[in-house]
Design a protein that fits this description.
Length: 165
Amino acid sequence: MGTRVWRMLTGSRNGEIALSIPGLRLVPSAVLALVLLLGLASGAIAQTADAATRLSDRDVEILQRGPYDTGEIVGGGLLGTVVGFGMGHAAQERWRETGWIFTAGESISIVALAGGAAACSSKDDDDDDDDGLMVFSESAGCVLAVGLVTGGVFLAFRVAELIDV
């Protein structure tokens, strides 16, 4: 008879303890899951709030004035468009972030063009006057290929710089 009273008071079956609320019956595992879910959600909200309050002085300055002022945008855009070689990034104080890539890439492509053109030229062994002048080998195909490849690389860096600046 005692177990029957226990079941009536607790609303349990088969020895299981349950929380009985009129119109709602929750077993302990469901209650535990609900408590854990609420605890994790409140912890995530608190963690997000903590991250927002931990801004550095530089971040606060950027948020107050914006990432760039008008002079940096216009001056950097003009320098990057006209001069290239990462100068626009330097004017925007971003050379160390991405400007060096354009400085190196555009410089290397020009050096490769000069080196490729020099490699395409050779001393003409069939030249009877032996004046030592260099002529282009076989045809202009070598120079054309070197010019297209290195010019294409240079142009790709210029277009990427125009977009980035």
